[in-house]
Amino acid sequence: MLPSLYYLVPVLGGYAVTSYYLLKNPHILHRRKRLPFHCRHISHRGGAGERIENTIEAFENAVANHTDLLELDCHLTKDGQVVVSHDGNLLRQTGHNVNICDIKYEELPHYREALEVTFFPGHMSTGRDHRMPLLEEVFQKFPEKPINIEIKRDCDELIKKVSDLVKKYHRAERTIWASTSDPVMKKCRPENPDMPFMFTPRRGIILLALYYTGLLPFVPLPESVVETYMPSIINRTYFPNNRLMRNRFLVRLQDKLMMRKGLFQHLQARGIQVYLWVLNQESDIQRAFDCGATGVMTDFPSKLHHFLQQYEGEQRALEPQEPAAEQESQHGY
What we know:
Elements: H1 2-24, E1 41-44, H2 56-64, E2 69-76, E3 82-84, H3 91-94, E4 114-116, E5 124-126, H4 135-141, E6 147-151, H5 156-168, E7 175-178, H6 182-191, H7 201-213, E8 225-229, H8 248-258, H9 261-269, E9 273-277, H10 282-290, E10 295-298, H11 301-318, H12 324-330
Protein name: GP-PDE domain-containing protein
Keywords: Hydrolase, Lipid metabolism, Membrane, Transmembrane, Transmembrane helix
Family: Belongs to the glycerophosphoryl diester phosphodiesterase family.
């Protein structure tokens, strides 16, 4: 037993030291990803707390509040139109118990006068616009704005039509494939390989396993974006349908495992952006950025905009200032 330890301890020690060094210096093994956008302000469903979700009015409000990324969801109508809507069944959104895939676009009912904010129960959103837009309308209205598109159904036609629209409007580099389904993501990637894509939940679990075993610095990662919930919002503003996820012990465990600044810093050093959702309270937004998240996804674009103005001002104030004499020398005084 003891002789084997003489070999095992140095090997494990060398592995741990090498893993830690590469975790801090990932550029040694990996080329940094170069996304053409850097997102701190992300509007969930266009900002579902301030306007009716996924409407043109919501997207306009988000852009007016300096959002870096619009997050939206897509479905396919009976007549083959790619429509922007979170739910496939329209009962919650419109009061009509119909599926988008079963009716033509022109037959889609309008949104209710007011909708409860999914990630802020008890809060309602209203607006003048109650129409579900086509994805093509959004591309036409916001040609330069990065957009995160979640594919809500495993539908080959939907995936192909979204890809075709992205190609038509020459926006592959600034449009993100998003899905919580591995089979869907496996179809999205070859359909348009030029589009960046997110980690699915299964891939996120693998990411955590790689991090805690020390293997992460050695493994290539094809994804460009991590999009995940911040566990501490569960049972406060986020109530998962799976009761197991709401178990308080598991919530605390997830929080300990997932909210690791070292992990976020490593990913960002490799050019992988980390977005935490859906944060609607200032204390949660503050924590997300303090933990090293690249960006925050919110239902309240104006609230996040005002927070970032203050937060970034405070960060600049904390930066070391050059000595006055050196500043004068640089300016030729």
